Amino acid sequence: MYYETDDELEAHYLCAMLNSDMVNKAIKPFQSKGLFGEGHIIRRPFMLSIPRFDLNNSEHARLAELSMIRHEKVSKISLTKRSVATRPGI
Asked: How confident is residue 90, by pLDDT bands cut at 50, 70 and 90?
């Protein structure tokens, strides 16, 4: 799944929202569970009423800013073990 936008702040706002505890807690009652624990959430976050990004909303702008800060920090992490998440081309 993907979302296209020409607005970097909007992308960071959505990233912050989709990775928030608020969204995680809201989808838990609808998340499938199997023998190996909780299943993939795929479309569940999009069933929520996430407000559209509004640059004039100071909370939206702050979430985008925090996401940018976290992305910068994560980009500097050196991964030492190979896994599905770190394989090139995936």
From this structure: very low
3-state secondary structure of 34: strand
- The DSSP 8-state label assigned to residue 3 in this structure reads -
The CA distance from 57 to 59, in Å, is 6
Q: Classify residue 39 as exposed, middle or buried by CB count within 10 Å of its CB (0-12, 13-18, 19+).
A: exposed
How many Å apart are CA 43 and CA 27, to the nearest integer? Answer: 10
- Higher model confidence: residue 78 or residue 58? 58
Please count the other Cβ atoms lying within 10 Å of the Cβ belonging to residue 67: 21
pTM above threshold 0.85: no
